[in-house]
Amino acid sequence: MSEKTSHALGADIVPRVTGHMSPAEFRKHGKAMIDWIADYWERVEVEPVTPDVKPGDIRSRLPQSAPEDGEPFESIAADLDRIVMPGLTHWQSPGWFAYFPANVSFPAILGELAAAGLGQQGMLWQTSPATTEIESHVLDWMVDLMGMPADWKTTGRGGGVLQMSASDSTHTAIVVARSRHREADASRMVVYTSAQAHSSIEKGANVAGIGHVRLIDTDDEMAMRAPSLAAAIEADLAAGLVPLFVCGTLGTTGTTAVDPLAAIGEISRRHGLWFHVDAAYAGSAMICEEFRHHLDGVELADSYTFNPHKWLLTNFDCSVFWVSDHAPLIEAMTIIPPYLRNAASDSGEVIDYRDWHVPLGRRFRALKLWFVIRHYGAEGLRSYVREHVRLAQDLTERIEAHPSLQMVAPTLFGLVSFAHADGDEATARVVDAINATRTSYVVPSTLADRLFVRVAIGSTLTEQRHVDAVWSAIEGAA
After folding, report:
1. Are 184 and 336 in contact (CB under 8 A)?
2. What is the spatial distance between Cα 470 and Cα 473, in angstroms, rounded to a whole number?
3. What gap in Å lies between CA 316 and CA 314, rounded to an integer?
4. Which candidate, 163, 118, 180, 182, places its Cα nearest to that of 357?
């Protein structure tokens, strides 16, 4: 052993951690960071929505190895402007009309900051009672606010839990459904969903080892045909397969079509399938009573998911997952090693959310949703959603009145789907014209091999003038 090594291991050497930021320094830099975020929001409208970079441009600005010694925080913060900003896609731009919104609000940001500062690990009630009980209570609030069945509350047979995404919620639901048929070979099991459903249903089936996925055909409004679902189930039963799970969609990604939940639910009950509803985007609109006719049949669902982080002013990640009966979920997810046993859990009087999803660890997601609901109030959230729907209807009326443009699907919520009457090349020109403004951005999609434009209205800062700017680009290219 060398003298240096011997000295390093000597009993007289006391290891010390250096470089902790002091509370005073944290206050200083934290206030500066809040100012930086507020400044960003004040200027995001004029930023190009998408960055002008090539693959590798951002990494080329980073050093090849991590720093050996700590850097002043002022230097770290300065790299937000020097390195990060040039490579950002500005999802919070009022001109963001691509995909679906991923909106954020200042109360949600502050809730996230508080959650980060508290550093809770809410895997068990015992590890953070406040984390668990606030989440349970806020999601019970949401049952009432969204017009869901009352027995979905945690005070009843059902209950809610916050997941990372609707994909996680769907994957969990498939696993729970599979666990009810432990004696069956998963390779013979079948999952059913609409041909217009989100790709996460197929992915979840693959992850769970399900052997078959049936994409059921849709009607003229891109909603699942219930008779086709019934026929597919009957055919699979006749072939000796095991129909397992059906997902109905409330607001498809392509066009926000709504599947006939009541008919799907009845078919699922008749054949003993798990019935899951994916309302990732459009579920937020259920805070407004005028949209709740789309929920007809939801009382037949075994599980339901929607994302406040899409259209309810709560930043990612925040996905609500409700079950009508929590017993199958807990049975499928619970494994209790001795180091997690405790008196509170053994009493049966508490919720341990680690038994409600795949991960063991979980953070204090509910804090930001709690902040948002309390800051805006139910009426504030309703007016927010209603304004975006009004803007979407206004744009729809302009498109319908234009001789060269055609709607390809009804405007049910905040998504407007249309195409140019002259075909795909003309439609592509419209997309290019919108995106050439650099302050508005859309993505196209296809339906029956026809290109169409999706204008998803739902960003936090979007106002009438931003929709007017999109229309000017559309009209100029049409």
Report:
1. no
2. 5
3. 7
4. 163
pLDDT digits (tens, 9 = 90+) for 359-411: 888 989 999 999 999 999 999 999 999 999 999 999 999 999 999 999 999 99
| 242-249 and 319-323 beta bridge pairing | unpaired
> Tell me, what's the pLDDT at 18?
67
Beta-bridge partner residues of 420:
405
Is residue 7 very low, low, confident or very high in pLDDT (cuts 50, 70, 90)? very low
Contact 258, 251 (CB under 8 A): yes
Residue spans per domain, the chain: 109-372
Q: What phi, psi does 319 have (nearest 5°)?
A: -115, 125
* Secondary structure letter of residue 418 according to DSSP: E
Helix, strand or coil for residue 246? strand
Residue 17's pLDDT is what?
61
pLDDT tens string 225-279: 999 999 999 999 999 999 999 999 999 999 999 999 999 999 999 999 999 999 9
Task: Let me know: does 163 contact 156? Beta carbons within 8 Å.
Answer: no
Q: pLDDT per residue over 72-102, tens digit each?
A: 999 999 999 999 999 999 999 999 999 999 9
> Helix or strand or coil: residue 28?
helix
Q: Which residues pair with 444 in a beta bridge?
A: 453
Give every strand in the sheet of 242-249, ordered side by side.
159-163, 319-323, 303-306, 274-278, 242-249, 189-194, 212-216
Provide the pairing of β-strand 415-420 with 303-306.
unpaired
Per the listing, tokens 């996460």 go with: 200
pTM of the entire structure?
Answer: 0.91
Specify whether the CB–CB gap between 55 and 91 falls below 8 A. Answer: no
Containing 238, the helix (H) or strand (E) segment is helix 226-238
CATH 3.30.310.50, domain 109-372, yes or no: no
- Whole-number average pLDDT of the chain: 92
- Structure tokens that stand for 72 in this block: 């002043």
Counting beta carbons within 10 angstroms of the beta carbon of residue 381, is it exposed (0 to 12), middle (13 to 18) or buried (19 or more)?
A: buried
Residue 373 burial (C-beta neighbours within 10 Å; 0-12, 13-18, 19+): buried
